[in-house]
Amino acid sequence: MSRLSEMIKELCPDGVEYKKLGEIATNIFRGAGIKRDELAEEGIPCVRYGEIYTTYGIWFDVCISHTNEKFLSNPKYFGYGDILFAITGESVEEIAKSTAYIGHDKCVAGGDIVVLQHEQNPKYLSYVLSTDMAQRQKSKGRVKSKVVHSSVPAIKEISIPVPPLAIQNEIVKLLDNFTELTAELTAELQLRKKQYSFYRDSLLNFSRDDVDVEWRTLGETCDTLSGFPFDSSQFTSSGIRLMRGMNVKRGVLDFREENNRYWKGYDGLEKYLLESDDIIIAMDGSLVGQSYGLVKEEQRPLLLVQRVARVRSRKANPHYIYHYISSGRFTDYVNLKRTAGAVPHISLRDIEHFKIPFPSTEKQNQIAAILDRFDALCHDLTQGLPAEIAARKKQYEYYRDKLLTFPRKGESGGSAR
């Protein structure tokens, strides 16, 4: 930190110049659509906008997807150092998430992606574009709805500090050290998750011919319900917490305060109150079929919101049902049933028709107990590796924003706004 302070004092004695992305861009353009059925095992590397939200972090050097150039009538190429923005999303708070490509392949940008080419340190730009200061600008003027959009003109207007390259490089070194520490913990967590998946798949691998197992649908064994259409303009700052799609992650119900919304009470809404061990499934979004969780007693009271399903077991161990849903079989089922379009959707009726193998109650309880222990290690945000990773992330975000807050040039003693 002292070396960085000395560099800033030497190279930026009057403060750091802030520039709009449109000013530092050597080129900025939109990608072109790549349909799901145009993806291929091999071919030219490509990025689709949803992958920026789900797969890529501050930077990436290898694309997870490929396509055949014969499908592309007007391909939009990007290369080393380019910044990619996802300009369609489901959340104002996350719209225009960006990442830096530091690989060396010639790649193709899919639709709803904006590509920024420049002459700065790409990792520096990506770090600064992930700060709260930058995200407030990305979110400005965006309206909450099923789909949130940004645009090339909006991206061009984002203003960031642009110190000399030597300072950018030093900041990248410092922040890379933080992200490497988190990456080590994340790698260990991924190993735990693989172990959990192995045992889960082994324990839940039942044959259709197994006479000791009965196959029944969720609708036959559970009470199902979709949520109430609350008016978002009447959300309150306290009261009964709402269970929204925003709170449902893969295997986790995420109630960080920034995700929470409240309702004044539950009079007349008693049937939407959730109980401990209710299974929650998000019914729409880019991760439909992969967003589910299990309600814990300490998370209540909760009111169920529309486009979120509740599955309440009547005849079986709810934890057993939950682990079967999380095994990947439900995701495969939803991929066949979900609607197409900008926001994929699964109906409550289709959720009810999902079939599950039910062994004896004793066997269900044994399987649930084993998998609950693994699940807690992998997904519980209050203990173990997930908690340590969350703490490191908060520490990283604090130092990132501190490192990337500079006095503005011409504003003596001032700080970035």
Q: Notable features of this structure?
A:
about 20% strand, about 425 residues, alpha+beta, five-stranded mixed beta sheet
Topology:
Elements: H1 2-11, E1 18-20, H2 21-24, E2 27-30, E3 39-40, E4 44-47, H3 49-54, E5 59-60, E6 65-67, E7 77-78, E8 83-86, E9 88-89, E10 98-101, E11 107-109, E12 113-117, H4 122-128, H5 132-139, E13 148-149, H6 152-156, E14 159-161, H7 165-203, E15 214-217, H8 218-221, E16 222-226, E17 240-243, E18 262-263, E19 279-282, E20 292-294, E21 302-304, E22 308-313, H9 318-325, H10 329-337, H11 348-352, E23 355-358, H12 361-379, H13 384-403
3D architecture notes:
The chain is α+β, with helices and mostly antiparallel strands. It has 13 helices and 23 strands. The protein has helices at 2-11, 21-24, 49-54, 122-128, 132-139, 152-156, 165-203, 218-221, 318-325, 329-337, 348-352, 361-379, 384-403; strands at residues 18-20, 27-30, 39-40, 44-47, 59-60, 65-67, 77-78, 83-86, 88-89, 98-101, 107-109, 113-117, 148-149, 159-161, 214-217, 222-226, 240-243, 262-263, 279-282, 292-294, 302-304, 308-313, 355-358. The strands form 7 sheets. A 5-stranded mixed beta sheet has the order 2-12-8-10-5. Strands 3-6-4-11-7 form a 5-stranded mixed beta sheet. The radius of gyration is 24 Å and the shape is globular. It starts with a helix and ends in a 14-residue tail after the last helix. Residues 413-417 have low confidence and may be disordered.
What percentage of the residues does DSSP assign to strands (E)? 15-25%
Radius of gyration: 24 Å
Shape: globular
Percent helix: 25-40%
- Averaged pLDDT, please? 89
What class would the helix/strand composition place it in?
A: alpha+beta
| Number of contiguous helices | 13
Oligomeric category: single chain
Instruction: Give the uncertain stretches in residue-range form.
Output: 413-417
Gap between N and C termini: 21 Å
Largest sheet: 5 strands, mixed
Q: Identify the strand order in the major beta sheet.
A: 2-12-8-10-5
Number of strand segments: 23
